[in-house]
Amino acid sequence: MKIGIVGLGLIGGCLGLDFKAAGHTVYGVARREHTCEKALTAEAVDVASTRLATLNGCDVVFVCTPIATIVPMVSELAGVLSPEVIVTDVGSVKAALVEAATAQWPMFVGGHPMSGKSEAGIEAAETGLFQGNSYVITPVETATLKTDKGAITTLETLAKQLGSRLYHCSPEVHDRAVAWISHLPVMVSTSLIQSVINEPDNSVQQLAQALASSGFRDTSRVGGGNPELGLMMAQYNRKEVLRSLKRYQQEIALTIEQIEAEDWPAVRQKLEATKAVRSKFL
Ligand code: NAP
What we know:
The protein folds into two domains: 2-169, NAD(P)-binding Rossmann-like Domain (Rossmann fold, 3-Layer(aba) Sandwich), CATH 3.40.50.720; 173-281, 6-phosphogluconate dehydrogenase C-terminal like domain (6-phosphogluconate dehydrogenase C-terminal fold). The chain is of the alpha/beta class and 282 residues long. The chain is built from eleven helices and eight strands.
């Protein structure tokens, strides 16, 4: 297949590497010449250009730009692609995008490969990022819009070639679920890091830094990721991020109450319950 990728950053670069390895021809579009050169050097694309028209002969185009730019990018693509080209995106948020993009392009199908790293940009791209991870496909069906069945099947085939596990759900259900396991953890992790660096006693803070090991590395990892992405998760999945944060706030308030009251059986019960449930959940 001829596969187009718009946005040659971390996710675009990783898709390019894996699709090339699977035998597809990959056409990449970046907004800067310099990014095109880096993508060619990294062998993430066969052809790189700053012009969207380069993608005209492609069978499928993946939009891998930041969340805020996805719908405007689909609209720009609509001006250059032939009507049969399938367009999909990789945005971490779906409800704010999928209907709007489908209205621009009837052959649009929303998708979200659930894989990532702390680093951003083509320099961080690597092969096999999607292997064994989930790929969520989010079709829509409204009075006026319906995701094309053939487009879904093609995206399923490509996602399987990445080694991903497929899931299908509505954009709204996607956003509610990822708020819990992706967007809330980012917000919690940033608050954790901020609280630690706000320690007023400098010597205590320095010692904490020296002692920080695997536990802090695990719990702070997602808070140290791409700030632009975290911001757009909050902006574009605001309702579900707030819902999960408020529920989390209640849990924290309960823990404070229990420790203040020295209610150790309650603290123990919660620790035991989460230990038992975590391994099953994962
Ligand atoms: P990234 O590494 O920062 O790459 C974004 C790319 O988009 C860059 O190559 C950048 O070009 C380009 N770009 C930025 N603004 C643009 C604009 N206005 N018009 C055209 N191109 C623009 O980010 P990423 O992590 O790959 O994220 C890309 C998408 O993947 C996002 O929609 C995100 O929600 C989704 N996603 C991310 C993850 C993750 O964990 N990182 C996981 C799953 C899905 P330049 O090189 O010229 O700056």
